[in-house]
Amino acid sequence: MMFYDLFSGVKWEVRANDHYFHQSCRRKSFLCFRWGRYADNVVRSYKYTPLTFLPLNLYEQFQRVANLFFLLIVILQSVPIIATIPWYSTMLPLLFVLLVRGCKDLATDLVSLSFLSFSQSILLNSFHLHRSLKTSHISADLLLLCSTEPHSLCYVETADIDGETNLKFRQALSVTHTELNGDSVKQNLAAFDGIVWCEKPNGNLHSFKGELHWKGERHLLDTDHLLLRGTVLRNTDIAYGLAIYTGSDSKILQNCGKLKLKNTQVEMLLNKTVLVILLFMITTALLLAVGAGLFEHRVSPKYDVVSVLQRDSSPAYLGFITFWGYIILLSPSMPMSLYITFEVIHMVHCLLIGWDIEMYWEDNNSPAQARTTTLNEELGQVGHLLSDKTGTLTQNRLLFRQCFIAGHIYGLLISLMLFSPLDLSWNRFSCGGLKFSDQRLVDKLRERSSPECQEFFTALALCHTVMSEWRDGLPHYQAASPDEEALVCAARELGWVFLSRTRETLTISEMGLTRNYQLLALLDFTSKRRRMSVLVRDPGGQLKLYCKGADIVVLERLQRDWPLQESTERALELFAQGCLRTLCVAVRSVPEALWTEWSRTLSQAGTSTGNQETVLEEIYDQMEKDLTLLGVTAIEDRLQEGVPETIATLRRAGLKVWVLTGDKTETAVNVGYACKLMDPDTILIQGEELRSENTDRRAVKSKAALVISGPELAEMTKAPEWGAKFVALSDQCQSVLCCRVTPAQKAEVVEMVRKHSTSITMAIGDGANDVNMIKTAHIGVGLCGVEGSQAVQNADFALAQFRFLRRLLLVHGHWSYYRICILLRYFLYKTTAFALVHIWYSFYNGFSAQPMYESWFISLYTTLYTSLPIQCMGFFEQDVSAKSCLCWPEIYSIGQKEQLFNPLVLAITLLYSVYTSIILFFIPMGILQYSALDYQTLAVTVQTSVLLTMTVEVILHTKFWTKYSVAAVVFSLVAFFLSTLALHSTRLFTFVDITKCILILCIIICVFQSNVIDLKINMNQVNIL
Amino acid sequence: MKNEGKSAQRPDNTAFTQQRLPAWQPILSAGIVIPGFLIIGLAFIGIGIGLFLTSQTIQVQEMDYTGVEKDSPCFRCTIPSNLNCTCEVTFSLSTLFTGPVFFYYGLSNYYQNFRRYGVSKDYNQLTGDTRYFKSRSPEEDCSPYSYDSNNNPIVPCGAIANSIFNDTFELYQIINGTKKQVPLDGRGISWWTDYNIKYRNPSPVNGSLAKAFDGTVKPINWPRPAYELDLTDPNNNGFLNQDFLVWMRRAALPQFRKLYRRITDGDYAAGLPAGNYSLTVHYNYPVLSFDGRKKVVFSNVSWMGGKNNFLGLAYLVVGSLCVVMSVVMLVVYAKFKFSDDDDA
Predict the structure, then answer these.
(1) Burial group, residue A34, by CB count within 10 angstroms (0-12, 13-18, 19+)
(2) Which element (helix H / strand E) includes B87?
(3) Are B195 and B189 in contact (CB under 8 A)?
(4) Which residue of A has its CA nearest to B253?
């Protein structure tokens, strides 16, 4: 293999139409073992096959510490000498947990399986030649061979990969284009026998090196020839390609790292508590073992009935044995089924979010969606909401409302209700939909009396990456960003119609006059450059650079001492006050010589290695200078429905709302006022004030909001401790506005808030530029917006509209938090109180690890008797109705302050369970001790008391009695009494013991009733206050 | 069609999915809780008083006959070498001891609830299954009372059976210096389920229960084999012997009493009349080695069982607490209500 030596590192071989070669290399798998080099193209989101399910699932389940712990307990129980209770007592609950969990895993797996086969309607076989159709997602990394477009061009949208929304073109090698295209494309392709040598699969999206060997020639391949999986084909009818990387080998899948599992605060505290319980259990077992040793040492030798049984073992050894016996006996205090219940409840809460019709948006048929199933209770604890502006607070449906050309502002910003459309009947390309109304401009354009205006609209019609498509004799535009679409459409309505583009030409119609521009270069948009330019040769042969971009970047590239500086700035300010998004449009006449030189540098850069992106940026910079301002466009991005109300409610709920936007400060501030982020009389703290020492005091005195811009942020974050100060300051303010921030800075801000405050952060955004932020925050929410699905795919929750956030947080979040906290507390309570009774009994049985309950009760207690009522509570409980949650957002602060689940509450819960266990043991003992009390009677009495106490506890905690809750309680009690009857022979309580037992139960229940009611009344009073 | 497709993902608008299930939402308002507490408290105080008073009417005659003190009648029987020792405990009743009178024996500091002790028996054997006479189901459980030194299987095996309480008592009323025996009724003193379900004798071989026990030996401490436990009543033998059943139902606490006999027959059906009594104890069971105590208890019962002040006191305490709580809550409530009015 010569090629190996020539290209070290190039080790991936793909042979077109060679089925046999690839079949032999197909990756296969059995259980967890894999072999073979090439993955097939089915992405296995599903894990199991019928054969692998059992071993794989069990293996996964026993990776959970809790399950492993109980497996150890079961193993301990099978050692006869320490088996204090029969092996099935723990085995049954463990099997139950494993079974439920296994079913859940299987169900999730089956769902993803059916989903997958649905979405992969065109299933691909590896290394076949592929045909991709217009606007379809490409399903493998393909080498573009030819397409139906001229020069085998192919336009792709990469929004789902890198978040950049402009269209990019890919072109086939000219050799494949000329040889394969033609009338008999299919036959040609079938006969294609090229061999591709390239890099091994890797996650680098922007580089690809390889070569095609065909007909004895070598052709270099680079990333321009590659159609990546996940990109969308646009404006190209059919493209043919050779699959290079398929399935999990494809670049996008190599690139997506493992999902970081998010844990909630509640869960972390729970884990700590379980650890504490474990330590407590071990310590107690140790102390009891010491007790057992002492008993064997002091009492037993004199007491031959017992000492004979121990057969001369040393007290230390017996203590050691007893230790393990007590570990088994106390192990029920570890809430084993808690984790599974926790998961089931989470899942149901997620379903309920998806089912909520009030979070369903009719317009794009999207219900809310919980993509991560572990974060529900955290929805009820959010302290900081960090929101994107564009597309999140606003609709991202852009309307061209005003423009500024040569010192004049055209267009009026009036309500759309009062709007009277222009008469555009003279324009045969008009499609309607223009919300711009200024007859003066139309007159000027029609009379051709203002060259500036004409140039301005020529720039709008040329400087973009929009594609046109002709339907019914009218041009329809496909744009990657809504801004561009709005501008090109506005130009079309006003007579400057973009007709079509090829790779080298742009055709526009200027007031009915069709003109061809030669496209020399396209300096594309990136979020870092924040501008784009086209270099064209106009029909007159002149070279012109049209540039369009954010005002800050364009204004600094203008010729020095440009005219109308003042009025431009005034216009910009005016537009910002109207919450309009502005873009500056500029032009530059390029001398021929400059172009020749520049294009040479550009082509050199294209072949150079190294960081191409920065090199290109520098070269682009050289061209985009000495610009002349043509004008400013003002686009309105209207607020989404219900945004001000939502923000106002969330602020009442105690959330700190931060808005992070790429817009400039004035626009952001005005949007801030418009969406009630700030009150009209709020004082803004910005610029130098942020740094001064006495700002803190001022903020406390009055309503204030912080306004900070990206550059300032970048500068200040350099100073250590600044973050803590800033977050502390922001806590005293109403809200924070961060303007002109880059996507990376958004994430930094989230990180800063996470680091310097204890509260839960939630980030919400809609675009690819919000992905970082969404991933960084505790909870990420994606809006299914105009800008593709990138944000949603990385989010934990997906919503259709910003206003649904109110319901998601205040209703679902609050309920989830309430339900889960109550559930966890009850669980800890019931398991610990249950297990602790053994300790008290051990003082009366010589520390012999004698269980207090009968073994069947131990195994059925968690699984059958006490599981349903609390689960019902976890599903249905409502401490306040949805309406009240929304009416009194202040209720939300319960979660923010962690009032229902914090170390103190947990300590009280555990103390309460200790107290309960004391009552549960000593009252029956005290009452029965002077009678002919046998072990069984005491056991049955205590276990009945335990069960009734736990049931009463749940009854007293339930505030929302649905028929299911009633059924669950009744079921538990009936199950207990029936099984008690079944498991004992007839007539258990002979003699007079039965009356006594009933009386004992009454008193125990009553003791608890009074406690709990008392507790509840206190709570109610707190709530009322 | 189009409409259907458009709203395909529209969630169902049902009470369940929208969390609008009809529900009863009880609110514990002061108006319910305070009177509720008061009523419960008063009811409990009532029950408590009833229980306490009933408990007072129950007569109990309790006598320790261990013989620790040198002047006690059974002291001489505590010497281990003194076999088949008999001692006499006398007592007098000033009033009629209303019948039916229950006659218990009690042991203290005796760990029948010790775990290893508790499992030291073979249930299969005790259901009369002769297959388990020679082999043991869990082999370990009965050890070391499984086989004797000659490796003969012990039936019934295990520590519980071996340690059966073997003191016996006879009760006499002393009328004008002569002893009149009080008939003691040993029938039906065990649990119904034990006697009728859990324990069964092996089927007699050729009409003889003894033959069913062929090839087995008696427990080491027993004077006679299981089929000769009661020489007077042939039906009260084997695993269905009442005293054996009572002993096998192990006690919950280290201080316990077990029913020995009832006094229900003849002249004493109405109870024990006032007068002097003498209890003859056949003293066999050693307890002093582990500092244990033995006693006999005569008691009658009421609807609430035996004498038990604790239950009545517990009811009184909880009842009083409820009343106190209701008063406290009333005060708190009044205060808050008052301040609410002020605010308004």
Answers:
(1) exposed
(2) strand B85-93
(3) no
(4) A844
SS3 per-residue string spanning A262-274: CCCHHHHHHHHHH
| Contact with chain A for residue B8, Cβ under 8 A | yes
| A288-A290-A295 Cα angle (round to 5) | 90
Q: Which residue has the tokens 């009280």?
A: A908
Return the residue of A nearest to B340 by Cα: A1025
Closest listed residue to residue A806, CA positions, set A736, A889, A873 = A889
The rounded distance, in Å, linking the Cα atoms of A127 and A144 is 13
For B49, left (φ over 0), alpha (ψ -120 to 50), or beta?
A: alpha
Report pLDDT digits (tens) over A37-59: 555 444 444 556 777 778 887 88
Catalytic residue IDs of A: 388
pLDDT single digits (tens) A155-198: 777 665 654 555 677 878 878 888 777 777 777 777 787 888 88
Task: Report residue A732 as tokens.
Answer: 């005293």
AA letter at A860? L
Q: Which DSSP string do the residues of A993-1018 spell out, in sequence order?
A: HHHHHHHHHHHHHHHHHHHHHHHHHH
State the nearest Cα–Cα gap between A320 and chain B, in angstroms.
15
Residue B254 and residue B108 in contact, taking contact as beta carbons nearer than 8 Å: yes
The answer to whether A657 touches A675, Cβ cutoff 8 Å, is no
Structure tokens, A180: 């394969």
Distance, CA of A150 to CA of B11 (rounded, Å): 47
In sequence order, which residues have a C-beta less than 8 Å from that of residue A664 and are 6 or more positions away?
A550, A551, A552, A576, A582, A739, A740
Phi, psi values for residue B5, rounded to 5°: -65, -35
pTM surpassing 0.90? Answer: no
- Please say whether the beta carbons of A761 and A382 come within 8 A: yes
Interface test with B, best of A312, A1006, A1012, A1019 (most B CBs within 10 A): A1006
Q: Taking CB atoms and an 8 Å limit, are A936 and B192 in contact across chains?
A: no
Find where tokens 């029913």 sit.
B259
Rounded Cα gap, residues B229 and B237, in angstroms: 5
Cβ atoms of residues A90 and A74 within 8 Å: yes
Count of Cβ atoms closer than 10 Å to residue A90 Cβ: 25
- Does B255 contact A at CB distance below 8 Å? yes
Main-chain dihedrals φ then ψ at residue A283, nearest 5 degrees? -60, -45
A227: helix, coil or strand?
strand
Mark the ranges of chain B whose per-residue pLDDT is less than 70: 1-8, 136-139, 338-344
Which run of H or E residues covers position A748? helix A743-756
Closest CA to A686 of A716, A720, A662: A716
Q: Would you say A840 and A916 are in contact if contact means Cβ atoms under 8 Å apart? A: no
Q: Say if residues B281 and B67 touch (Cβ distance below 8 Å).
A: no
Task: Give me the interface pTM, i.e. the ipTM.
Answer: 0.91
> What's the gap in Å between the CA of B80 and the closest CA on chain A?
14
A476 vs A466: CA distance, rounded Å: 10
Decide if B332 touches A, using CB distance below 8 A: yes
CA separation for the pair A251, A244 (Å, rounded):
10
Q: Are the C-beta atoms of residues B184 and B172 closer than 8 Å to each other?
A: no
- CB of B59 closer than 8 Å to CB of B98: yes
Take residue B329 and report the two structure tokens written for it: 């809550």
